[in-house]
Amino acid sequence: MLLHGLGVSSRYFVPLAGILAARWRVVAVDLPGWDGSDRPPEALDIPGLAGELGGWLDAEELQGVHIVANSLGCQIAVDLAAREPGRFERIVLIGPTVDPRYRTPFRHAPRFFVDAIREPPSLLPIIVRDYLRFGLGRFVATAGAALRDRPEDKLPRIPSPTLVIKGQRDAFVSTDWVEEMVALLPRGELAVVPRAPHATHYAAPRSVATLVERFFSA
Question: Which pTM was predicted?
Answer without folding.
Answer: 0.96
